[in-house]
């Protein structure tokens, strides 16, 4: 009886994992592109459920790798959430403070020209592939986009 119960538990766990990763395509050892469009907060919670965070970017090579990952999965430079967000206390300040959801240092930026602009006074989250894959844009966090998770470092 105990063997049957363990076998059933194992199958249940494997099925649960398959459903959880159903919209994910893993590329490389660290990045996971998530096709399902979510708000920034929903995307971050989903990444956490996988043991990751929304992706942080620390170099032009890293930014290029993420653009290629999204392009290879969608066939275009699809606007996609990454883990950058703004300090809510500084949202109305001219010198805005940005952070990565994984707690790493915000030491690289790839903004499109004229960004971040905080259009409408409330754009505290970062999307990549803005303007056809050129760079980043600050955007209202309630927009629904695919996302890239980073983990396993």
List the helices and strands and how they pair.
Elements: H1 2-20, E1 24-27, E2 31-38, H2 40-49, E3 53-54, H3 60-74, E4 80-86, E5 98-100, E6 125-130, E7 135-139, E8 145-150
Antiparallel strand pairs: 1-2, 2-8, 3-8, 4-5, 4-6, 6-7
Number of strands: 8
Helices and strands: which structural class?
A: alpha+beta
Largest sheet: 4 strands, antiparallel
- What fraction of the residues are assigned to beta strands by DSSP? 25-35%
* Spatial order of strands in the largest sheet: 1-2-8-3
- Distance separating the two termini: 40 Å
- What's the Cα radius of gyration? 17 Å
Please give a structural write-up.
The chain is an alpha+beta fold. 29% of the residues lie in helices and 27% in strands. The chain has helices at residues 2-20, 40-49, 60-74; strands spanning 24-27, 31-38, 53-54, 80-86, 98-100, 125-130, 135-139, 145-150. It has a four-stranded antiparallel β-sheet, sandwiched between helices. Strand 6 and strand 7 (135-139) form a beta hairpin. The longest helix has 19 residues, at 2-20. The model is unreliable at 1-22 and 24-28 (pLDDT under 50).
């Amino acid at each position: 009886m105990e063997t049957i119960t363990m076998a059933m538990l194992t199958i249940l766990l494997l099925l649960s994992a398959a459903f959880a990763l159903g919209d994910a395509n893993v590329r490389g050892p660290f990045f996971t592109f998530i096709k399902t469009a979510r708000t920034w907060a929903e995307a971050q919670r989903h990444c956490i459920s996988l043991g990751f965070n929304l992706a942080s970017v620390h170099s032009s090579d890293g930014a290029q790798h993420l653009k290629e990952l999204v392009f290879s999965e969608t066939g275009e430079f699809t606007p996609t959430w990454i883990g950058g967000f703004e300090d809510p206390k500084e949202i109305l300040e001219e010198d805005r403070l940005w952070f990565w959801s994984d707690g790493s240092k915000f030491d690289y930026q790839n903004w499109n020209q004229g960004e971040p602009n905080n259009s409408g006074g409330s754009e505290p989250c970062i999307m990549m592939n803005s303007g056809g894959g050129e760079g980043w844009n600050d955007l209202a966090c309630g927009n629904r986009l695919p996302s890239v998770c980073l983990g396993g470092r």
